[in-house]
Amino acid sequence: MPKGYWIVRADVSDPEQYKKYVEANAAPLARHGARFLVRGGASERLEGGARARNVVVEFASVEAARACYADPGYRRAITFRQKAAEFDLVIVEGYDGPQPGD
Q1: Paired strand residues for 93
Q2: How far apart are CA 61 and CA 54, in angstroms?
């Protein structure tokens, strides 16, 4: 079963309020086995639009990624985020197929 990923792009307008979102999302993310692969590090836009902050969160499956988003604790965290940031979030199924050079 392929892993599931949240791919997030955000522009944070209120860093203090955003901290409340981060604090509130910790327990739901842990419950669903989330693992941060990218968490707001330096980025470089090469094509298309961009936001200031990028995050990639790995889950054991797409189902786990969906369940985390639907978790009541995460839904509560969203209320903090909505006051603090413009946010794009997609769930993407991982890829286990051939790679370049295979």
Answers
A1: 4
A2: 21
CB 11 within 8 A of CB 51: yes
pLDDT tens digit string along 23-56?
999 999 999 999 999 999 999 999 999 999 999 9
Residue 91: closest CA among 68, 67, 60, 66: 66
pTM: 0.94
The residues facing 57 across adjacent strands are 6, 36
Whole-angstrom Cα distance, residue 14 to residue 66? 27
Please classify residue 74 by burial: count the beta carbons closer than 10 Å to its beta carbon, then call 0-12 exposed, 13-18 middle and 19+ buried: buried
Burial (CB < 10 A; 0-12, 13-18, 19+), residue 30, is: exposed
Q: Give the separation between CA 10 and CA 51, rounded to whole angstroms.
A: 5
Place of tokens 């997609």: 90
The fold for domain 4-44+51-93 equals Alpha-Beta Plaits (3.30.70)
